[in-house]
Amino acid sequence: QKEVEQDPGPLSVPEGAIVSLNCTYSNSAFQYFMWYRQYSRKGPELLMYTYSSGNKEDGRFTAQVDKSSKYISLFIRDSQPSDSATYLCAPRDNYGQNFVFGPGTRLSVLP
Amino acid sequence: GAGVSQSPSNKVTEKGKDVELRCDPISGHTALYWYRQSLGQGLEFLIYFQGNSAPDKSGLPSDRFSAERTGGSVSTLTIQRTQQEDSAVYLCASSATRGDTQYFGPGTRLTVL
């Protein structure tokens, strides 16, 4: 089993749709859960992160972590064409000694 | 302030040649990472530098790959005797210290003919 798994997509949705991007992990030591966004031909950039279980909201984006099932989600409300990118989940442990990037899900929001 | 910069942005080389890729991290960041990203693939960790400690080279795919970081700042990734399978985007990232948010450069797109 890979340490972090994501559906590679591509996921195509119409503008305005609610998008759900998901990630599963296997290492129970992971405590911080980052989401990076990568536009085509650019480096990844941190979008948001959460600590432990629960939800965190930032504008149209909501990150959700369920540590009991080792399942991470990123929700995008009112999706825009500018949200078209690859989204990588990146969990890590408390001390940053163990971190890994998921393979990413490619999202396309159609106008 | 300035972000992570990488040069060149694109590099085309012939099989068997050596290439050097450069990374300028954010000033003051002690941690520096190199990753490889092949088309449609995730980030493959290559090497990690933390301050003056010995680097973590566990991700280097072969002895043709090496990296150094001079003066705790600029880093160079060298690929000797390049092969076609080395074609990928090479990304550099830096963070204030290990485990902190990583800030990525734009990458170097390497094509080996």
Care to describe what's here?
The complex is a heterodimer of chains A (111) and B (113). Chain A is mainly β. In chain A, the strands form two sheets. In chain A, strands 1-3-8-7-6 form a five-stranded antiparallel sheet, with no helix packed on it. A five-stranded mixed sheet of chain A has the order 2-10-9-4-5, with no helix packed on it. Chain A is built from no helices and ten strands. Chain A starts with a strand and ends with a strand. Chain B is mainly beta and 113 residues long. Chain B has strands spanning 5-7, 10-13, 19-24, 31-37, 43-50, 65-69, 75-79, 88-95, 103-104, 108-112. In chain B, strand 6 and strand 7 form a beta hairpin. The radius of gyration of chain B is 13 Å and the shape is globular. The relative contact order of chain B is 0.33. Classes of the chains: A mainly beta (111), B mainly beta (113). The interface between A and B is medium-sized, with 21 and 21 residues.
Rg from alpha-carbon coordinates of chain A: 13 Å
Assembly state = heterodimer
| Low-confidence blocks of residues of chain B | none
- Number of DSSP-assigned strands of chain B: 10
What characteristic shape of chain A results from the CA principal axes? globular
Helix content of chain A: under 10%
Mean pLDDT of chain A: 92
Total helices of chain B: the number is 0
Give the low-pLDDT segments of chain A. Answer: none
How far apart are the termini of chain A?
37 Å
- Sum up the overall morphology of chain B in one term: globular
Count of DSSP-assigned helices of chain A: 0
Question: Would you tell me the structural class of the helices and strands of chain B?
Answer: mainly beta
Query: What proportion strand of chain B?
Result: over 45%
Order of helices and strands of chain B: EEEEEEEEEE
Helix content of chain B: under 10%
Main β-sheet, spatial strand arrangement of chain A? 1-3-8-7-6
The profile of the biggest β sheet of chain A is: 5 strands, antiparallel
Query: What does the average pLDDT of chain B come to?
Result: 92
In percent, how much strand structure appears in the residues of chain A?
Answer: over 45%
